[in-house]
Design a protein that fits this description.
17 helices, 8-stranded parallel beta barrel, alpha/beta
């Protein structure tokens, strides 16, 4: 007999006490009740139970702290009993976990929702639904879309981000020159490449010193405010030290590789009273989580609600356009998770990059509107007329889209035309 105490309707009055995970599972079924037993096992394994009943596992403890099964759907939606077999069958499961078990933090939340059960076979975490009471315990993005628009005094157009190239192996003096060239052409945000850390050749504080000097020069010449995001990624203690020292020495934004460093570290940076600058998060390492269709965590969850919960202000995401060849549907789902209403938390800037060229501008406007950032490295630094011209070409394309809705609706500047001639149209 199936114990229905393990099940809960989504309309349950106590539902706000739970964080809800949605999973895709594929497994052979040779007994009609096996998937139900599997779902119950998952809910208990991640909360109060183990493979056998143990002393201390009282009824009161189980009732208060155990996970619950909300839904089990088979794909396709079989109404008549399927024949017993050992063939692979696919299911969508929804499990609810009391968030009192882990409190307002990300590491233990993920441990609970997808810890041991991530290793039980073909299973992928698709989404997590959070109640407002849980979300309220996180600071969320300090600035987000509106805050950075106000900071840079850019009310309605998309922003332009450049990553200094070559990515690594360059001195701070050389990097500062490259930053100045990109900033002079109209780049709003310049960041370190994700592989440029705190090294003997190029330390965080030396880059802050020289890059910010070059940035201020470009600001005075263009009349535009700009951000430089220095990469402070390191082990947690050193990352916090790097971040605080960078801000104390004039850095006006930070870059963190948020998956290798940890989402909880981002939340800690956001809670730090002395680190009051925007945080730009890089997408690297994500494929280790989402690349398989049957294992891991969905990219739309990692680069959507989870990043926003952690508190990033700007996030690099994979796109269908450049070198990542990402699913268009997943791409839009990420942006939805970053920008849609989320219990009052500020929206996060999606940074679309990965071999993005000037010819991609119309597609970006069409899909994303105006609240996005173009992340361009090679298309700026490898422009045939130089990095300054590469940045100008992007700004010219944005202006044409803002005023005419197409790149053909007005006069194409020589810098944009050179980029189009070299790299072609989208």
């Amino acid at each position: 007999m199936i114990n229905l105490d393990f099940f809960m309707l989504k309309e349950n009055p106590g539902r706000d006490d739970y964080v809800i995970g949605t999973y895709l599972m594929r497994k052979p079924i040779d007994n009609p009740s096996e998937i139900i037993k599997t779902a119950v096992m998952m809910a208990t394994e991640q909360t109060t139970g183990t493979w056998v009943r143990v002393p201390g596992e009282t009824g009161a403890t189980i009732d208060r702290f155990r996970g619950k099964v909300l839904n089990i759907w088979e794909i396709p939606d079989t109404e008549q009993e399927a024949p017993a077999s050992d063939e692979q069958r696919s299911f969508i499961l929804q499990l609810a976990f009391p968030w009192r078990n882990f409190g307002h933090q990300i590491p233990m939340m993920l441990t609970t929702i997808f810890g041991n059960i991530s290793m039980i076979g073909n299973i992928k975490l698709l989404d997590v639904e959070f109640p407002e009471a849980f979300i309220s315990g996180f600071p969320g993005p300090r600035y987000g879309i509106e805050g950075i628009r106000k900071m840079l005094d850019i009310p309605d157009r998309p922003l332009l981000n450049n990553m200094v190239k070559p990515s690594t192996g360059i001195t701070p003096e050389h990097g500062a020159q490259l930053l100045y060239q990109a900033a002079s052409g109209g780049t709003d945000i310049i960041k370190d490449d994700e592989v440029m850390g705190n090294t003997e050749l190029s330390s965080v504080l030396k880059r802050v010193e020289l890059y910010m000097k070059a940035l201020r020069k470009a600001e005075s010449e263009t009349g535009d405010k700009k951000l430089y995001a220095v990469n402070v990624t390191d082990d947690p203690d050193r990352c916090m030290e790097n971040a605080e020292a960078a801000v104390n020495n004039g850095a006006n934004a930070l870059l963190v590789n948020f998956l290798p460093a940890g989402m909880g570290l981002i939340a800690a940076l956001c809670r730090h009273s002395k680190i009051n600058v925007p945080i730009l998060a890089h997408l690297d390492f994500g494929g280790a989580f989402y690349a398989s269709p049957w294992h891991g965590i969905s990219s739309s969850l990692i680069y959507g609600k989870l990043a926003r919960l952690a508190g990033v202000d700007m996030l690099c995401i994979p796109t269908p356009y450049g070198k990542f060849s990402h699913s268009y549907t997943k791409y839009l789902q990420m942006v939805h998770g970053l920008r849609s209403p989320f219990f009052g938390k500020p929206g996060v800037w999606p940074i679309v990059g990965g071999a993005i060229k000037q010819s991609h501008i119309p597609s970006l406007f069409k899909a994303l509107g105006r609240d996005f950032i173009i992340g361009a490295g090679g298309a700026i630094h490898a422009h045939p007329m130089g990095a300054t011209a590469g940045a100008k070409a992007f700004r010219q394309g944005m202006e044409l889209m803002m005023t005419h809705g197409t790149l053909e609706g007005g006069t194409i500047g020589k810098e944009l035309q050179a980029a189009m001639d070299l790299w072609g149209s989208d």
